[in-house]
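If your schedule permits, I should be very grateful for your opinion on a structural question. What I wish to show you is a protein chain and, alongside it, a tokenised description of its three-dimensional fold. Would you kindly read the sequence against the tokens and tell me how you understand this chain to fold? Here, with my thanks, is the record as I have it:

===
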Amino acid sequence: MKQGNKIKEQIISELVELQRNNEEVKTQKTAFKQEKKVLNKKYSQKEKFPETERRMSVNHNLKEVLILIGKRVKKLLKADEIAIYFLEQDEKTLTPVVALKQNRKGGIVLTTQNVKASFIGQVVHSKKTLVYNNFKNKVSTQKILDIPEEKDVHIIATPIIINNKVVGVMRISFSSETSSSEDLELIETFAEYAATTIKSANIYDNFQREVEEHKATEGKLRNMQKKLEIRVKGQTGKLSEINKKMKFEIDRYKQTEKELKDNFKKLKSVFEGVVNAMSMIVEARDPYTAGHQRRVSRLACAIAKEMGITEERAERIRIAGLLHDIGKITIPGEILIKPGVLNKSEFEIIKNHPQVGYDILKGIDFPWHISEIVLQHHERLDGSGYPVGLSNKDILLEAKILAVADVVEAVSSHRPYRPSRGINKALRIITENKNILYDTAVVDACLHLFYESRFKFE
């Protein structure tokens, strides 16, 4: 559609240009009429001039119009001969296009003239009217190719100028020395008339040529339009079929997407069920710490969000929190519920639960490194933690968050070997060990939760 509009705009623009050229032709015709009035005013020569003007205005054959001009000049000035030459594009030669002469011996030489070596060539160079007169023994001292050798020759030559450039020469010969200054003025006026005629004819020829070109272009455009309509019709059918197929594929894709979302929800539900089941297995063996992993998971998630951690990382912290003590499943029950202080060997067994938890979870294809978080949740910044003894830069941020949440929940909850020490004591412990055992940013976020956001364990 856009291409069609561009073509229409181009055609309209070209037609406007043609109209402008047509107006120029009309303007030139008006100039003819004005020049005719000047001639009539000077000489009152009204005999057949109107008829000649009419014939000129309807005749666009340049040579015929120039012949009409030549005849008028010859008749008005009673000249013996008149010739009109055109200057060739090489500007070296002049070629006769019109020649009118009396039936007498000798006379004008109607051949191509060399600009450098001819009388009319001098007119081209000077751009002025020149007169040659060898009456009364006025013989030229220089041999000129286009001047007859006999005496009694009176020649006037005037340039035909268009846009300040000589395009031809009008040459008039007389058998008597009768021309006057008014004759020269009249000849120059007719030369101007001839120049206007040549210019107008060129405009008309260009106009006609452009009209023909536009007709041809319009024909091509019509053919192109027909071919385009055929192609569009064919493509429309193909597009219709493609649209049907695309609609079918889109509907199928939407159905598949819905099924995948439903399956994902089911898998997520199953995943949550498995994680919770694994968490409950540990808590079932230690009734005194029931709910510990869920509470740690909740606090750890809250700290992560307070720190501006992404939802994805917060989710992996939540899952790791629910499973961080899974390794305690291998610890004997009597150690888990022992009311007194653990001895060294018993504590060594307790210290091994992060490694056991890692070994259990590493075989499960979690979407995140859950097993590494579980392995590191008892590591400390100064390297005093277990089971590996990692220091600050080697500990995962998720494990640092889980460590703070684990300590706060454990200190503030009841244990078989001691009563609850309270949340204030738990917060005081992490504050005193900030940047020693526990990460500063994590501790600050945890303190803000309890003091500013009023976080509470359920």
